[in-house]
Design brief:
elongated, mainly alpha, 7 helices, single chain, 71% helix
Length: 259
């Protein structure tokens, strides 16, 4: 009678299971760390990329504001000249000068449109959290709020333009304006590209303007003063915006070591 012997596997010690568990735990943990580091690096790269485009936006804003401030100063000087011509009745004998001043035109609204592509991405995409440096995120938000708040004068300027137009019609002849613009209009219509180096208005040497009624004259002068006051306030705001843009740009360049 045969006797069958069953082979028995030696029972593993608890330390063996412990090391298996430890090795598995370390493998999972290391994988988690690697994934975390990768995600962390991706976010840091995105942060740096956002700051590079933000620096470009701030440089663009600074250039635009410099141009806008220069243009506002020019308009204010022209408004001063126009006020003097009307107040002294010089416009009656020097009508051409009035039409030249009309050319800019002085009631035109000079809006500042900030380059906010990066700021919109940061706000709308929930990406502000990527900005680790608190001083930088605070400066960006401060600049954005400043720019948006200073748009409050635009509706007032539109209202002044609406008020001044009826009085302007009593001073200027639309037929003279149309004739002065005709050469420019014809060249624009005949060209397939943007016309440059051509005067917007070609005025005759002598233009006579009828004398304004005294009441209309005073109202006109009042509106000129209001527009000038508004331009000065807008110029001041543009200077504050420019200063804030420069400070924010310098901070971004410093904190992120941009060139």
């Amino acid at each position: 009678m045969e006797v069958h012997h069953h082979s028995h596997t030696a029972r593993k010690k608890w330390t063996h299971y412990f090391w298996e568990f430890l090795m598995l735990f370390l493998a999972v943990f290391c994988g988690f760390l690697a994934e975390y580091q990768l995600e962390h690096k991706i976010e840091r790269d995105r942060e740096k990329q956002f700051m590079q485009t933000m620096a470009e936006d701030l440089k663009s804003d600074t250039a635009r504001l410099n141009g806008l401030i220069k243009l506002r100063k020019s308009r204010i000087r022209k408004l001063d000249t126009l006020f003097h011509i009307i107040a002294s009745d010089e416009y009656i004998t020097n009508g051409r000068k009035v039409y030249e001043l009309y050319e800019f035109p002085y009631w035109d609204i000079l809006r500042f449109f900030p380059s906010d592509r990066t700021m919109q991405q940061l706000k709308n995409g929930g990406n502000l959290r990527l900005i680790r440096k608190r001083n930088v995120s605070d400066a960006l938000i401060k600049y954005d709020v400043l720019v948006r708040n200073y748009k409050e004068y635009e509706p007032l300027q539109e209202e002044l333009a609406t008020q001044i137009n009826p009085h302007l019609e009593k001073l200027l002849d639309p037929i003279i304006i149309e004739k002065a613009k005709r050469a420019y209009t014809d060249k624009v219509l005949a060209a397939d590209t943007i016309i440059r180096g051509v005067r917007y208005m070609e005025l005759p040497d002598t233009i006579t303007i009828s004398k304004l009624v005294e009441a209309d004259k005073k109202i006109f002068l009042k509106h000129i003063n209001q527009v000038k006051t508004l331009y000065i306030a807008s110029m001041r705001d543009n200077m504050l915006e420019r200063n804030q843009a420069k400070e924010t740009l310098a901070l971004v360049i410093k904190e992120y070591h941009l060139k």
